[in-house]
Design brief:
Length: 136
Amino acid sequence: MYSIGELSKKTGVKVPTIRYYEQMGLIDAPERNEGNQRRYTKEGLKRLSFIRHSRDLGFSIEDIRELLVLSEHPEHPCRNAHDIAIRHLSDTKAKIKKLKKLERELKRISTCDATVVGDCLVVETLADHRLCHTDH
């Protein structure tokens, strides 16, 4: 059994986040000892590690919720898990594409050689989106 602090250290998830995941129903509310401290099982540790790794990979809370449900049925086909991962990959590629456009635009406006703010390309572009070269 683990205290919430031990669970936090083992998973790298902050204590308030663990409580938040409990409130959201992603992890079960743990048993409490006589001193009313939360006591987590190895299964709780495993589940929180799963959530942490999923978040590190950028999965949404809703996707994680679905993946957790799927993980509770190891005998089922993994097609649904694949579908969630493929959807997330597609979303990630779209974000990367948008970030690359943003990078190009920021590089362009940061090369301004004006000496006063009144002539600054950064300030002018921020004030008028039509001056942007990319649709970011």
